Amino acid sequence: MFILLLLAGFFTALIGTIAGSGGLIGLPVMLLAGLPIHSAIATSKFSNTISSFSSFAYLLRKREIRWKEAFSILPFAFGGGIAGGLTAGLLSQSTLEALAIIFLSTAFSLNFIRKSSPSQTGDTENLKGIGPFLTAIGFYDGMFGPGQATMLMHTFIYKGVSFIKSIAFTRFQTFISCSAAFTAYLYNGHFIWQAGLAFCLGSLMGAQIAVKIAGKVPLQLAKTVLNVMTLILIVKLVHSLLF
């Protein structure tokens, strides 16, 4: 099981950092390995906390983002994450999946109404009014999680943020919301340390590789991968909800 969770963590972080929806890999594998649903989500929160901060720190050192910019979204990410983590135990899995479909469909639709296109190296544009969206995504991340990075990427790109900086913002929000949510899961006794450490180690390796190659990924290819992952996740959730 250690090797299985290690590989799952690696590919979850590798894909999730660049295009989001890495949870498509991680969560099903953990459930297949026999982890209870709440323990699987808790494991995902723990590994995302560690791996997302490691990739954010790398981009921070490369000066792709500044602390001041990152801190501007901190209250939305933390508030949403802790509220979602505390709410998770009150909702059924089908309800969470229905909410995920709504969030992802809304994020995907932004591709067709966007007024500006991001550049590979552009500075952060005006993020005024983005707070409620970040809080809602953080809330969903705290409750369930798969697809939250995709939603964040779509949101930041819609606001005109460059692809590489969108990754930096997404990694920082993921770190904050997941750490807040993990606190709630840990308090409720859902976390299994052995599984969490194996998945986390794989995630760390995957995240570091992802941020090192992200800047070399052509923008159009990155957008295509992002859209494909979004559609796959929506189809998977609809199928799960109906069947």
From TrEMBL:
Keywords from the UniProt entry: Cell membrane, Membrane, Transmembrane, Transmembrane helix, Transport
Keyword Glycoprotein among record annotations: no
A Gene Ontology term for the protein's cellular component: plasma membrane
Membrane disposition: Multi-pass membrane protein
Keyword S-adenosyl-L-methionine applies: no
Family assignment from sequence similarity: Belongs to the 4-toluene sulfonate uptake permease (TSUP) (TC 2.A.102) family.
Protein name per UniProt: Probable membrane transporter protein
Species per Swiss-Prot/TrEMBL record: Rossellomorea vietnamensis
